[in-house]
Amino acid sequence: MDTKDIRSFRLVYEERSINQAAKQLFITPQGLSRIIHKLEEELQIALFERTKGGMVPTECGDYFYAQSQELLYQLEDMKYHLQKMNSRQRKIKIGFACGVLNLVSLKKLNAIQSEMPDVSVQWEELENQEVAEQVNRGLLDIGFIIGTIPGNEIESCVVYEGKMNVLVYPGHPFYEKERLSIEELKEQPLISLNQKYFSYHSFMQRCGDFGFVPNIIINTMESQLIYRFCNEKLGLGIDADIHKTDRLYPDIRRIELQDAIPWKVSMIYRKNEQVRFLVERLAQIM
């Protein structure tokens, strides 16, 4: 059973249309129909009823859709581990939660790689929860996440702890303050990173603790844009103190948000001897 066929089935199921799914897969409707027919023959069941209104899943189709995502995960896991076993050069995969790379010294990371010619270090940036899940499933050897996670099979150590700041532009009434509280932001237009980032969720949580929903007028994927929009006086910025420099906008003040949740970065890894030799070195890349 080809994983591409399963993914094609899932898209047809979600779109309820061969034509719409084919457009997203960049294949012809006829080609996609053949894939679905081949899958049905292999399983010896009907996955869909073909109607004028579109593709209507059968009971078997509903069940196969519900189970197929976990099946894809298992096949991906198996493929990854087989590739690792077959590789002569040992591979270590590292995942960084969105935003964490702002703290990382890539020079130190490359130096670690050069010291281990028999090891290939690969890294990628993912959402915070995705890093934790992939370490837990063995798809990543080491992860850097924001916050901490409990678990009997996962070891965790805090490698960085910082504060949340409010970015304030010249002329704003808060500009000369030394500290700000969550409550003082209640009526302010705010600029923040979006839902992919831990800082967004922790800030929303703390505002909820104080009984209000913040007026976030701009969500962005780029922390530098928070500085830019704040500099343009569109609102106050909410950001962690993770940047090596803020000299692009020297007039912007970073004021500590005193009752915010601290911004912690943890290194996580499964309890095995294969990555322990890297852990101490990687703890020094920030």
What does the overall shape look like?
globular
Q: Distance between termini?
A: 44 Å
Task: Please state the structural category.
Answer: alpha/beta
CATH level 3 topology of the largest domain:
D-Maltodextrin-Binding Protein, domain 2
Order of helices and strands: HHHEEHEHEHEEEEEHEHEEEH
Integer count of domains:
3
Looking across the biggest beta sheet, what order are the strands in? 8-12-7-11-9-10
Determine the mean pLDDT: 85
Question: What's a quick, concise take on this entry?
Answer:
With about 290 residues, the chain is α/β, with parallel strands linked by helices.
Description:
With 286 residues, the chain is an alpha/beta fold. Helices cover 39% and strands 26% of the residues. The chain has helices spanning 3-15, 18-25, 29-43, 59-86, 106-115, 128-137, 198-209, 223-231, 276-282; strands at residues 48-51, 54-57, 90-97, 119-126, 142-146, 154-162, 164-168, 179-180, 189-193, 215-220, 236-240, 253-257, 263-270. A hairpin with a 2-residue loop joins strand 1 (48-51) and strand 2 (54-57). Helix 1 (3-15) crosses helix 3 (29-43). It starts with a helix and ends with a helix. The mean pLDDT is 85. It comes from Ruminococcus hominis. Belongs to the LysR transcriptional regulatory family.
